[in-house]
Amino acid sequence: MRLAAFIESNAEQIISAAEDFARTLQPAAGHLDSEALRNDLPKILDAIVKDLGTPQTPAEAQRKSLGQAPLAQGAPETAAQTHALLRAKAGFEISQMVSEYRALRASVLRLWLSPGQVLDEESSGDMERFNEAIDQAVAESVAHFTAEADRWRHIFLAVLGHDLRGPLNAVLMTAEILSRMARGTPTTAYTERLIRSGKRMKDLLDSLLDYSRSSLGQGIAIRRSRVDLAAACEEELAVLRAALPGRQIDLVVTGATEGEFDASRVRESLANLVFNAARYAVEGSPISVIVSGTEAKVSLSVANRGATIPNEVLSSLFEPLRRGQIEPTDESFGRTNLGLGLFIVQEVAAAHGGKVEVTSREGRTVFTVTLARTSAGT
Q1: What are the angstrom distances between the C-alpha of 341 and each of 166, 275, 294, 346?
Q2: Which of 149, 166, 190 is the last residue of a domain?
Q3: Which residues pair with residue 64 across a beta bridge?
Q4: Residues 339, 5: Cα–Cα separation, whole Å
Q5: For labeling, which of 103, 175, 210, 237 is most exposed (least CB within 10 Å)?
Q6: Are 36 and 83 in contact (CB under 8 A)?
Q7: pLDDT at res. 331
Q8: Would residue 363 be called left, alpha or beta, if left means φ above 0 and alpha means ψ between -120 and 50 degrees?
Q9: Is the peptide bond before 70 cis (omega within 30 degrees of 0)?
Q10: For residue 340, which of 207, 179, 161, 142 has the smallest C-alpha distance?
Q11: Domains: count for the chain
Q12: pTM of this structure
């Protein structure tokens, strides 16, 4: 009997065996009834049967064996994809879900290949096609399972960051009140340190929320208003010079720099870039900030002298939750950053219809953020 016909004739026995195996995947399977344990497994078998009867080229067979078969444009989720989403929501681990396919493969072939059976050319072809179909289903399930797990991870981070902001704000307000009450006393230095640490924690939480929002596909929200970007940057640099008393920060402005921008977000990006430059700059070397305008765009560049960033590292600098491989030259910054600063700079630029680029040659590193003057990019 051909494998497709065998699967159709013995579908209930095959699915029952798959259900029994799924029930062993604890603790996730402990609260599931028979229907939930079976999930989309019957539809997966139907898809395999259909695949076995569909002609394919050698190239299509190769792609399928690698789990790279293309899906039809605009097609609904496959049974394997739906199965993965439901397993992820039920609390299964990805290894448990993959083991279901392994058990399904073994069960079908064990039932089909009776003892002593000799495989003819047709049977060998059927078994090869069956394995290709299982491999493709595994690839689809793993991709969707991973995406769903990542989505819930980002939601958790967003909820955590949001819920922590309330208590942190209360701590900051109390610390500021205590600081005013203790002004001029020996405890002033301690309350001021508490305030600085609290603000640092707030910055980290804000960065985490921005990252979670972007990872959920929402991007970083901006609110454009008419502003002179050079003036906004000058205001931010005044704050940064006070925060970095040992660093010389120079500003050069060229061209018209007015436009519709989210000044707060741009200032945040500038602060991230300047602090990053100060972290890795050669001691005593200046940090250069250039704000320049053209007809359609305004660019913001931050340059510093320091170790040249290897080319193979440049492409990954803007990846979230990654820190540079080069050790900071200024140890006063510590190791408390989350590795989100450059990621946020990139997201702010994208929200403004622009981009961020970096070059690093002969000990000089330059980050350049380009922003469209208006939301239409004109």
Answers
A1: 23, 9, 26, 9
A2: 149
A3: none
A4: 55
A5: 103
A6: no
A7: 53
A8: left
A9: no
A10: 207
A11: 3
A12: 0.53
Closest to 349 in 3D by CA, of 233, 224, 265, 236 = 265
Is position 127 within any domain? yes
User: What pLDDT is recorded for position 377?
Assistant: 43
The confidence score (pLDDT) of residue 211 equals 67
175 plus 310 within the same structural domain: no
Instruction: Tally Cβ neighbours within 10 Å of residue 339.
Output: 15
Phi and psi dihedrals of 141, rounded to 5? -65, -45
Here the tokens at position 226 are 């008419």
Report yes or no on 320 lying in a domain: yes
Q: What is the CATH number of the domain that holds 122?
A: 1.10.490
**In which residue ranges of the chain is pLDDT below 70?**
67, 70-76, 115-118, 154-156, 158-163, 165-166, 211-219, 320-339, 375-378
302 φ, ψ (degrees, to nearest 5): -130, 125
Task: Say whether both 277 and 315 belong to one domain.
Answer: yes
CA distances from residue 338 to 204, 211, 225, 320 in whole angstroms, order as listed: 7, 11, 30, 8
CA 74 and chain centroid, separation: 25
Q: Within a domain: residue 377? A: no
Determine the structural domain holding residue 234 and report its residue range: 225-372
Question: Distances from the Cα of 359 to the Cαs of 139, 298, 310, 330, in angstroms?
Answer: 38, 18, 10, 21
250 plus 358 within the same structural domain: yes
Q: What pLDDT score was predicted for residue 335?
A: 47
Whether residue 248 is found in the same domain as residue 344:
yes
Structure tokens at 236: 């931010």
Find the helix packing angle between 188-215 and 121-181, rounded to 10°. 150
Residue with tokens 């906004």, as numbered in its chain: 232
> Strands of 355-361's sheet, edge to edge?
249-254, 287-293, 297-305, 364-372, 355-361
Which CATH number fits the domain that encloses residue 293?
A: 3.30.565.10
The DSSP code for 57 is -
Element of type H or E holding 315: none
Distances, alpha carbon 96 to alpha carbons 24, 156, 337, 347, in Å? 10, 23, 35, 36
Are 253 and 300 within one domain? yes
CA dist 344 and 61 (Å) reads 42
**How many whole angstroms separate alpha carbon 11 and alpha carbon 7?**
5
Residue ending a domain, choose from 197, 215, 233: 215
